[in-house]
Amino acid sequence: MSQTSAQARTRPPDLDTVQQDIDHALSRRVELPPRSVINAGTDALGAHLHRFMAYRYGQDDENDAVRTLREICARNLDVPVRPAPGTDHRDAYMYWHTIANLTAAFRDLYIAHQTPGDPPVTFAASAPRTDSPSPGVDLERVTFEQAKGFRCTLCNVLLTADRSLGVFTAERGLLTEPTELWACSPACP
After folding, report:
1. How far apart are CA 72 and CA 97, in angstroms?
2. Residues 139-149: what's their mean pLDDT?
3. Sequence-ordered list of residues with C-beta below 8 angstroms from that of 25, at least 6 positions apart, any chain
4. What is the pLDDT of residue 61?
5. Which one-letter DSSP state was computed for residue 1?
6. For residue 178, is the peptide bond before it cis, meaning its omega torsion is within 30 degrees of 0?
7. Are 159 and 180 spatial neighbours (Cβ–Cβ below 8 Å)?
8. Rounded distance, CA 101 to CA 104, Å?
9. Cis omega (within 30 of 0) on the bond before 128?
10. By C-alpha distance, which of 156, 164, 89 is closest to 130?
11. Which of 20, 3, 70, 34 is nearest to 158 (CA)?
12. Where are any strands of DSSP class E within the chain?
């Protein structure tokens, strides 16, 4: 094993990236994203999950709950269970969701086991709140589908890959309550 590979396994996971990948997998959608998006998301979450599984949780490693979680993850990451190119599109999507939920469970376990000497664990559990709109966003004209995250707030295209613009509130229209708005990722077409 190369030194870079060994360092990658021992360095702490980037919890912001982990959270973004989980959010991306579990975000609401009107229709299924392209298979390439599902496959890339599944691969990224699988890598995070392997890192969390390799982490040593001290005395809790002997805990039945941690051992069971590891066994469930190992079964789900096993080759016969993973989607193949011929697997139904919806089944691959559901597998992506399963891996996202398992990754979230291990992420929570990892955070709970940080010792006092460790650097503080921070990650963006939700988008930052802001009241100033992104360029090109008229908060009073946001449609229902845009407010619900089905369509891009900037270009009105159905979202398949998305990024958060933040949480917004307007005096009139649909956004009188704090609402997270979404846009195409990485950028609008």
Report:
1. 14
2. 82
3. 41, 45, 96, 97, 99, 100
4. 67
5. -
6. no
7. no
8. 5
9. no
10. 164
11. 34
12. 162-168, 179-184
Closest C-alpha among 182, 24, 187 to residue 96? 24
**For position 151, what pLDDT does the model report?**
84
Kindly report the pTM of this predicted structure: 0.57
What's the CA dihedral at 61, 64, 66, 72 to 10 degrees? 130
Q: At 14, list the tokens.
A: 């980037």
Q: Tell me how far apart the alpha carbons of residues 11 and 76 are, in angstroms, rounded to a whole number.
A: 24
What is the residue-wise DSSP string for 89-104? HHHHHHHHHHHHHHHH
For residue 29, give the 3-state DSSP assignment.
coil
Q: Show the tokens assigned to 92.
A: 């691959």
What sign for the dihedral angle of Cα 62, 5, 100, 113?
positive
